[in-house]
From TrEMBL:
Top EC class, one word: hydrolase
EC number in record: 3.1.3.11
Keyword Manganese on entry: yes
Keyword list, A-Z: Hydrolase, Manganese
Name listed for the protein in its UniProt record: Fructose-bisphosphatase class III
GO molecular function, one term: fructose 1,6-bisphosphate 1-phosphatase activity
Pfam families given in the database record: FBPase_2
Keyword Hydrolase attached: yes
Amino acid sequence: MQELEKSLLREKYPTKEAVTTEIINLEAILNLSKSTEAFMSDIPVAHSGRWQNADH
């Protein structure tokens, strides 16, 4: 690691506690549930007054 990078990290995280807190926060963010994706093919479509899948 370059000296400049070390210096910047020391400024942002001056203590071991600050580093530990940041690591815990980042791990918590990574463990959050992911958002749900919806696809148009999953949504039923009305056709001639009847509901059917979009791929028909």
